[in-house]
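Practice problem 4.
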């Protein structure tokens, strides 16, 4: 395996893999250990409605979260993914860094925020003028997404 430099803010799946491999090698962590550590890096915010695990979120104001959608600049700035399902408005948990447990992703596929459905990520971006292209990360395997948020680009 070739060695890649370990950047403070890895930007590609190869850099993230190198960083995780270095952590695993130095600490003897398993993939399950790493996921547990990342789950511990959770956040809370106040949601105005129900959320489902794995939905992409943005921050409409300090301390608040809502489903992200790539139809406006503000709503297309993904800050994390819902880590628990909620049934209505109130305090909700989300994960904002690293590898996100998320079913239905494909290894090696890049994912984008949907401009049509709030909270949804898609492998083929919605390409309509006036909407935003917001890359959110890469599929690691069928149950994991490497969350690498990017600044949205106006189409």
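Answer key:
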């Amino acid at each position: 395996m070739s060695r890649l430099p370990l950047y403070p803010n890895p930007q590609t799946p190869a850099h993230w893999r190198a960083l995780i491999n270095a952590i695993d090698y130095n600490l003897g962590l398993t993939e399950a250990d790493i996921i547990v550590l990342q789950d511990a890096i959770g956040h809370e915010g106040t949601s105005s409605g129900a959320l489902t695990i794995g939905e992409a979120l943005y921050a409409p104001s300090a301390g608040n979260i809502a489903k992200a959608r790539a139809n406006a600049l503000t709503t297309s700035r993904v800050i994390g993914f819902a880590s628990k399902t909620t049934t209505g408005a109130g305090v909700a948990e989300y994960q904002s860094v690293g590898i996100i447990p998320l079913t239905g992703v494909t290894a090696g596929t890049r994912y984008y925020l949907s401009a049509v459905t709030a909270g949804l990520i898609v492998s083929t971006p919605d390409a309509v003028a006036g909407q935003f292209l917001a890359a959110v990360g890469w599929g690691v395997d069928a149950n994991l997404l490497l969350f690498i948020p990017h600044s949205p680009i106006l189409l």
